[in-house]
Design goal:
This protein has helices at about 15-25, 40-55, 80-90, 100-105, 120, 125-130, 135-150, 160-170, 200-210, 210-220, 225-240, and strands spanning about 10, 30-35, 55-60, 95, 150-155, 180, 245-250, 265-275, 280-289. It is of the alpha/beta class. The structure holds pantoate.
Length: about 290
């Protein structure tokens, strides 16, 4: 156990609102970092940035059932509350909002209820293999923002589609919060940090680096045009067995739609693959010349 004081854990919406009211009355600004828990260095980068943005940090830890599909094992999602609280305590986080499913969804997570639709983009890429996932994400994020009313909220570049959709929701619904984007934290060999990396055995961990290798290759070819970007990624991916590619695609940063042939301009290269039973995603921002 860490020697630092752990954050105060708030389990109810009413309790969270009281804390927010108290902090606001004292004139303090608030930054929220929403998480599913199982915290790693990538999350801690959010928390560190949040300290620069606001007086008070709130980290939410909630394994949101509405963003898990029927075929995804919600029960197997890693829950490491003790370790998470130690890590957040070391970084001086004062508050963790950790509601139960009943507290967040009093009528049950699947009862007919008001939800936010992620629309067409929400059904593409990650949404294609995880139907309803982004509706669940946006709905819980809207609830967390409504409960904590922060001035700032942090989201990671690692989940590029989630980031795009949250940004659009904030704009479309005029939610008064400033979105702060946190760069992806990577292992030394390039693998993006993810709570799912812990499911990889040694050989899968070795193979998983191909995602970032392919993205780097794509980015290095960006000056030579779109065809070169795609060829470079395909070339890198051919070398790796044990990795089942779901998609590699280049999207327009503004619209998140796949770019047309001959596209030049700002873009994101997205990749998703299954390594053993573990699905991994990564992305890289590039300028196609
Ligand atoms: O990215 C995540 O960890 C989750 O999708 C989020 C934003 C905490 C919503 O449950």
């Amino acid at each position: 156990m860490s020697s630092h004081p752990r954050p105060q854990v708030i389990e109810t919406v009413a309790g969270m609102r009281d804390v927010v009211a108290h902090e606001r009355a004292a004139g303090r600004s608030i930054a929220l970092t929403p998480t599913l828990g199982a915290l790693h260095q990538g999350h801690l980068a959010h928390v560190e940035r949040a300290a620069e943005l606001a007086d008070v940090r709130i980290v939410s830890i909630f394994v949101n059932p509405t963003q898990f599909g029927a075929d995804e094992d919600l029960d197997k999602y890693p829950r490491t509350m003790d370790a998470d609280l130690d890590l957040l305590g070391e970084l001086g986080v004062p508050y963790v909002f950790a509601p139960s499913v009943e507290e967040m969804y009093p009528k049950g997570p699947s009862a007919p209820t008001t939800t936010i639709s992620a629309g067409q983009i929400g059904a593409m890429f990650e949404g294609k293999s995880r139907a309803g996932h982004f509706d669940g994400v946006l709905t819980v994020v809207a609830k967390l923002l409504a409960i904590t009313t922060p001035q700032f909220v942090t989201f990671g570049q690692k989940d590029a589609q989630q980031l795009f959709l949250v940004r659009r929701m904030i704009t479309d619904l005029n939610i008064p919060v400033q979105l702060e984007i946190i760069e992806t934290v990577r292992e030394e060999d390039g693998l993006a940090l993810s709570s799912r990396n812990q499911f990889l055995d040694a050989s899968q961990r070795h193979a998983a680096v191909i995602l970032s290798t392919a993205l780097k290759a794509a980015s290095s070819a960006a000056d030579s045009g779109l065809d070169a970007v795609i060829a470079a990624a395909q070339g890198a991916l051919m070398g790796e067995s044990g990795v089942e590619l779901d998609y590699f695609t280049i999207v327009d940063t503004e619209t998140f739609m796949p770019v047309p042939d001959g596209y030049r301009g700002p873009a994101s290269a997205l990749i998703a693959a299954r390594v053993g039973d573990t699905r991994l995603i990564d992305n890289w921002t590039l300028y196609v010349g």
